[in-house]
């Protein structure tokens, strides 16, 4: 599955809705046992949640948007398919979450590409299920430091801390992702799927049990004037960086 929402594959409500529909179609296709996620936009895997969806909108919109973010994560984290992220560009915040949610991550070894949960740098807080997914990949200590600092890690650093499983030259990313997929698909599906469920169930159940509370937390957090101001300033900073 190739993300193609220029300029930076931001995770808008439309993007998330389409992503979930595509994933569901593949999930229901008995002939499809695995999916490789990558980007058709040069140098960017995904810029994370679309900040404009979280700025100056109604409570109803925030609720709809956040439910779509939750849905994307629940579907991908619990997928029966083998999921491989071929990270061919930068991947902050929600983009990093997508990669973390897969079974295996391969990143292009370009030191200019960065990845991480940088929410703290925007003055926002990564929700508990972003944090849980991160902890399950890199461990508690690395996740704690990285989350508090809102670190964006260069590709070599991401590999060193275990955020990505391997680095390969950009031109070899597709072939390597295919080889990894073949390796994972060589196992019987039922054994791999049951093992995946066993490893991820507690974290999935936690969001399912607190889904509506999480939506309300998001709404009250994002609606605060101080948070709206931080997000506006961040967007302005992104725009100024260009000029
Ligand atoms: C007890 C505790 C309670 C806590 C409760 C918690 C409740 C929940 C809290 C809320 C959590 C919300 C979680 C959010 C997660 C996220 O994903 S937030 C998004 C974070 N994303 C970023 O920080 C990335 C920002 N973008 C960049 O760094 C760069 O754009 C890039 C590296 C991706 C690409 O750089 P470059 O190629 O140079 O492109 P640009 O010129 O910067 O960008 C082009 C264009 O796109 C716009 N844009 C970029 N990113 C975004 C984005 N994420 N959303 C919307 N728009 C984006 C950028 O402004 C440019 O627009 P213009 O062309 O100038 O119009």
Automatic annotation (TrEMBL):
<dbReference type="InterPro" id="IPR029045">
    <property type="entry name" value="ClpP/crotonase-like_dom_sf"/>
</dbReference>
<dbReference type="GO" id="GO:0005759">
    <property type="term" value="C:mitochondrial matrix"/>
</dbReference>
<dbReference type="GO" id="GO:0004165">
    <property type="term" value="F:delta(3)-delta(2)-enoyl-CoA isomerase activity"/>
</dbReference>
<keyword id="KW-0413">Isomerase</keyword>
<comment type="similarity">
    <text>Belongs to the enoyl-CoA hydratase/isomerase family.</text>
</comment>
<keyword id="KW-0443">Lipid metabolism</keyword>
<comment type="pathway">
    <text>Lipid metabolism; fatty acid beta-oxidation.</text>
</comment>
<comment type="subunit">
    <text>Homotrimer.</text>
</comment>
<keyword id="KW-0809">Transit peptide</keyword>
<keyword id="KW-0007">Acetylation</keyword>
<dbReference type="Pfam" id="PF00378">
    <property type="entry name" value="ECH_1"/>
</dbReference>
<dbReference type="InterPro" id="IPR018376">
    <property type="entry name" value="Enoyl-CoA_hyd/isom_CS"/>
</dbReference>
<dbReference type="InterPro" id="IPR001753">
    <property type="entry name" value="Enoyl-CoA_hydra/iso"/>
</dbReference>
<keyword id="KW-0276">Fatty acid metabolism</keyword>
<keyword id="KW-0496">Mitochondrion</keyword>
<comment type="function">
    <text>Key enzyme of fatty acid beta-oxidation. Able to isomerize both 3-cis (3Z) and 3-trans (3E) double bonds into the 2-trans (2E) form in a range of enoyl-CoA species, with a preference for (3Z)-enoyl-CoAs over (3E)-enoyl-CoAs. The catalytic efficiency of this enzyme is not affected by the fatty acyl chain length.</text>
</comment>
<protein>
    <recommendedName>
        <fullName>Enoyl-CoA delta isomerase 1, mitochondrial</fullName>
        <ecNumber>5.3.3.8</ecNumber>
    </recommendedName>
</protein>
<dbReference type="GO" id="GO:0006635">
    <property type="term" value="P:fatty acid beta-oxidation"/>
</dbReference>
């Amino acid at each position: 599955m190739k993300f193609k929402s220029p300029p930076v594959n931001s995770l808008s409500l439309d993007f998330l809705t389409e992503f979930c529909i595509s994933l569901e179609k593949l999930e229901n296709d008995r002939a499809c046992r695995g999916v490789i996620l990558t980007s058709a936009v040069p140098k960017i895997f995904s810029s994370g949640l679309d900040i404009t969806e979280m700025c100056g909108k109604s409570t109803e919109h925030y609720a709809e948007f956040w439910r779509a973010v939750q849905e994307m994560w629940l579907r991908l984290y619990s997928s029966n398919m083998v999921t491989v992220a071929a990270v061919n560009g930068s991947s902050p915040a929600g983009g990093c979450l997508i990669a973390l949610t897969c079974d295996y991550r391969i990143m292009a070894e370009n030191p200019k590409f960065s990845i991480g949960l940088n929410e703290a740098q925007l003055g926002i807080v990564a929700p508990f299920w972003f944090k849980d997914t991160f902890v399950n990949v890199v461990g508690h200590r690395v996740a704690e430091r990285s989350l508090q600092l809102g670190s964006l890690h260069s590709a070599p650093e991401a590999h060193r801390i275990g955020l990505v499983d391997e680095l390969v030259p950009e031109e070899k990313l597709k072939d390597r992702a295919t080889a990894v997929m073949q390796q994972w698909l060589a196992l019987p599906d039922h054994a791999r799927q049951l093992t995946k469920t066993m490893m991820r169930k507690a974290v999935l159940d936690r969001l399912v049990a607190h889904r509506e509370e999480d939506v309300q937390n998001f709404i009250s957090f994002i609606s605060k004037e101080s948070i709206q101001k931080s997000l506006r300033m961040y967007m302005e900073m992104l725009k100024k960086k260009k000029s």
